[in-house]
Design goal:
mainly alpha, two-stranded antiparallel ribbon, elongated
Amino acid sequence: MNYQKIFVHFMVVLALVGFVASSIFMFYQSFAILENGELPDNYMEYMNNAVVYITSLLTALVGGIVAAAFGISQSANQNLPSKRYKLHALGALTNEPPPGSTENRSKYGFFYALAYILIGTAAVVIWIILESEATQGIATMATSFLGMMVPIVASFFSGTQSITAGKPASAGIQAGKE
């Protein structure tokens, strides 16, 4: 039994669970401390500083996990479509299926990425709705999410060019041949 793999799977799942839980708590706190729709001057007295920092850290960590998994190159013997393989690679970080059973990895990867995108988008929407009344934790979480979306989107769409006659569509142009 490979304890290092089990530890990695546990930490990847724990990061997502912590991200979701701390984000929901921060969303709740951000609305609960508003007084007549305005943020009080001393609002940080009502906030849990640890949750603010942990949520910011987990936003970047989970985004980094998604981006790193999407950046894993597909081996030649894999016969999955490129985008599905990226979800498969992300799902492989979340669990170790029984031998010979890997069909659910893409589903796990999809739900992992979906949870990150939904919570991150919620942070951006709350930041936009509350404008200057948004807490610093929400603003930091929203900007971290937006910053991580650049490498996530780039890695998700990298290597997905169409294949024509066994060569990438851009291979002839890169070699100076048209």
